[in-house]
Amino acid sequence: MVTNLSAAQLQIVKNSRFWEAMSTNVEVSFDGHGMSLEGSETDIMAVKLRMHEQVLSQVRSRTQACDQFKVKLLRKSAVSQYFHGVFEQMQLNVTCTVTAGEVVMHGLDDSTIDEAISTLDRELFEIKVPLDSASSAALSLAQWKDVEKTVTMNSKVLEIAVAADKTSVTCCGIHHDVDNAAEEIRKFLRQYAVVEKFVQMPEGKVMYIRKHLTTEVENIAKSVKDEAVKLEPIEDGDRSGFVVRGSSQAVQQASAKVLDLSKDILEVVHDSDVPGTQKYFATKRGRESLTAIENKWPVVVLMSQEELIEAGDDDAATRSLSGAKQAEPVIKSEVSVPNSNTVIRVLKGGVTDCHAEALIITISEDFKHTDGAARLVAVEGRH
Asked: What is the pLDDT of residues 290-308, one digit of tens each?
């Protein structure tokens, strides 16, 4: 047994098969411990001498820096076996060892070592796929584990590593496997990168959905392909709506369903001209009245903070008529009545600027047009 050879020397001796060109009766074999020689002492000494002259004395090494991903990959037995087969096919009698951050290539001459190093650089490839905040969030989805498993199983040699700060995903392995894996990862990120969309709607509808349609909202989240989609209600006056987060495809689907849900909710605006209405509903008794209404029926009542013309404020009524022309009424909402040609439309604007076949307004108890909207209509009628 010859056991004083390093792993690299033993591999090169084994690959060289120098003894086959000798006229000898020595049987040569190899195992994990070393090289075995069987024959007469004279023949064995001749083989050992030739081994030192033709192989061991000529073995040289070349050290090359290597990044952590390639080092980790080259430590795997599957990778070393792959390159052993490549070098064998190219008839290169070389072998390599890996240290902390370097690859050491061993061979019998410089040209062979150069060719082996070039082959290693050419075959062992690395691609870094950059991530932004949207795509890095997609890595927390269950689908990401499926992608990792699939690309690894479909490759000969592949290492996938996510940066600690989630700014990139690095693929390292055999060139064509890395290309395929990187493309699959990019495809996954394009489909599942977490984005968000704001679906704007009136605050009252948001409150109604949040209070009475929680099951419907949950069903929307479950109905899209990506169940990781999230819907967050925002109640903030004119900036109210739903924030929809998830993959781009899921966000589009969920946003459309949220809009459809809001269309089914009827919104009615009542402009009260009764003095003190706002003040009443701001009191404890007024708030209790609103709560009682909401508890009795599946409705949500919002009180506007807009200032109304107080009773007896003749100057205010006069200012509204003699001043600059009021803005055109704005359509706040409209609902088509099924099986008819009727449309219920809620407008906001000056009552005297609305065009209608008839007006229903409140008047004082003595049936005189002295207050509020009744006075406005009466004054405008005289003009």
From this structure: 889 988 999 988 876 554 4
Listed residue (58, 54, 49) closest to 26, CA to CA = 49
Burial of 251 (0-12, 13-18, 19+ CB in 10 A): buried
Q: Please write the tens of the pLDDT for every residue from 66-115.
A: 888 788 888 888 888 888 889 999 999 999 888 888 899 999 999 999 99
What pTM, to 2 d.p., does this model score?
A: 0.50
Using CB atoms within 10 Å of the CB of residue 278, give its burial: 0 to 12 exposed, 13 to 18 middle, 19+ buried. Answer: middle
CA distances from 315 to 204, 321, 327, 353, 375 (A): 33, 10, 20, 19, 12
Closest CA to 282 of 308, 260, 256, 257: 308
CA distance 149 to 155: 10
Tell me if 157 sits within 8 A of 150, measured CB to CB. no
- Rounded CA separation 126/40 (Å): 52
In angstroms, the CA 40 to CA 53 distance is 20
Whether the CB-CB separation of 354 and 327 falls below 8 Å is answered with: no
* One-letter amino acid for residue 173 of the chain: G
Which residues are CB-neighbours of 12 under 8 A, at least 6 positions away? 55, 59, 93, 94, 95, 106, 107, 108
- 270 vs 281: CA distance, rounded Å: 14
Nearest to 258 by CA among 191, 225, 327, 210: 210
Judge whether 194 and 140 are in contact, CB under 8 Å. Answer: no
Dist CA 373 CA 381 (whole Å)? 12
Q: C-alpha angle 69/72/77, rounded to 5°?
A: 135
Q: Which letter, b or e, does each residue of 136-173 get, where b requires 16 or more Cβ atoms within 10 Å of its Cβ?
A: bbbbebeebeebbeebeeebebbbbebeeeeeebbbbb
Instruction: Evaluate whether 155 touches 179 at the Cβ level (below 8 Å).
Output: no
All domains in the chain, ordered by first residue:
7-122 (3.30.1370), 124-192 (3.30.1370.10), 194-263 (3.30.1370.10), 308-382 (no CATH)
319 pLDDT more than 50: no
